[in-house]
Amino acid sequence: MIRPSRWIVSLGIPVLLCAVAGAGEPPRVPKPANAFAYPRTHERLTAYDEGGAVPEAIQRYRQQFTVAFRSEDAAKEAVVELAPLYNDYAWATSSRWDDNNRADRKMRDVLERHGYHATFYLNGVNNRGIDFSATGKEILQGGNSIGAHGLTHPVLSYLNCNRLFEEVARDRVEWEAAADTLVTCYAFAYCNFRNSMMGNAGQINVNRALRRAGFYLSAERQYNDNLFTDMVGLLLLPGDGADIDDYVHRALDDEAAHREFPMLSHSMHVWYTTPEGWAKFEGQLDKYGHNPDWWYCNHNQYAAYRYQFLHTQIAAPICDGKTLRVRLQRPLMLDLNDPTPMTVRVKNVAREDVVAIQSDTADCVPSQRNTDVFLFHVFHDRDMSLPAKIGLVSNAQNRPVLADGDEDPDFPGLQGLFSLHGDGLHLVLNNRTATPLSNVRITYRLPLSWKEGLIRRTLGEDIGPGVQWNDMVKPSSPTTDYKYTAGTAYYQAQVDFVLGAVAGRLHLDCRVKNPIDRNPSYPQGGFARLGLVPDDEMDLDRLTNDIRRDGLLKEPWPLKDGKNLAWTSTGDTPFEEPPLDPETIRTTGAFSCKESGFYILQSRVLSEREQPVGFLPSRDTVQRIFLNGSDVTGGPARLLRGRNRLVVLYHTRFTPQRRFSHYDGEHAGTFLRLVKPRTTERITDVRFEPASSD
What we know:
This protein has 694 residues and is α+β, with helices and mostly antiparallel strands.
């Protein structure tokens, strides 16, 4: 039997995290040598948005409770603090299962039989043309939850910013509406949240998208390795049939790991296809199951508790005779999207010294656990509620006028439309029901081109029967940087309300296409391409000599089988699938690739002036860079005024011996940025034009 009581750590009053002010990269904090350890919570920085003061992703409210004691001495001696885990358990444990897999039903039954709960991380409701909504509803049974895994199972960090936001935000709203459930947790497809060249800058964009979309748990432990954010994390056990004992015991012996990530989660795919595979997995469940000192929960519950613990401020108690009065500022339940209460410890006194606990606004319930200290749970205020029904009204064409079909079956008679036109975002709610719409709170969720990620409105009055209500918001002027505007922008409005006696939520969204197909100062669409040249048919000496002689390649590339590879324009735009970041030159055009070989990419680069230039390429895929006939791969270069000839040699990263090597963001394309020397600042006064001849 595991003895988790050894790892109970008293953290005392949690310290409120502070946000990064400014767009620079957060400083790196050296990672301790310990395998799991991370800096203490108060040493982290959040990076869910950038630039000055921004609205908080989760709002707080004030709450107060009193603790009555047998004597004044007990009241003076008592220490009141928040427990790091619900019910002051030593560890939480759960499981994560990815993808829209029909076998999820069997996993649900197996987990329930062993006393576990899970979060199933799903792609879009109709991913690849298959409606998964019925299965999604069924796997919720038994105390499970749904998390998001990307609308199309994307290699997320290589997408343009608009598609990045849509992948995470739309996946969440689709599942909330399809299953009438609450989605707060995100697991990255292919565990990809960071690309090799953009580094922290790219991950900041990923994090901004997640926080704007309403997520606050990342199911990847490594998420905060380089960029410390306020996303809740956990420890994933080795998955898919691997042995877990060594990992578990190392984690249980690691106090720093326990302090930062007090959850062990089974993972990752329901790929057990034999009786022996299922038996091994169920044996692992048995070995670490039914421990009275562990919390068996789903990821939503764990995330909600940990986020509250890390972000709740507790004031110094006020002693009044035999009573302590305690004030909290804690995250709002409507933003947490989960009702899990906070557990409070009363220390330094005997359990029997605590006579009563009470709050005028919330339920306070003593814990049933028999521990050395008195424990009780503080629920959210009684006037708060979470939606029992959730709907979705989409406006893919960005129509400005409400139509008869703009309603969800969950709320017959409640019409809604969300659009962007003119100089603002427009929301229409038309209450054609017989009851008023009350307690209305609106959260506008904006793509990354806007300074504000979240705009909130709370209505001071009801929307009565027969009333059409209109709202218009004007966010701060968006950036004009094509890196953030490229492609089709996704906007979302979340309307929470009470209709009659039922709490509900209506998601409304719209998509707005940027009329600009490409910005020629970015490399996307500005190259001609030849490939794929197999590894054993790439003659680097010949290529180098041809470039040095002519500066620009013109002829097809002959292959051993007699075929010739011809030059083609990439013809790339931010609307082509997959919709890549504009600093990416499309190569294979697919994230999945099982071939190893080369692409030759070339462009005419028009510069307004002569200037020194540096290159930020994808280090793992770019083998050579030639400018005006010279190899400048590892050294300084200079752009001439007018036309320049640029050739890039790309090589796929496919390695058959490496698991999942056939899935990689850089299969689809390769990152390239022309920069001012010794900086990462992009040169903007250039134009990339595809070139296959002079």
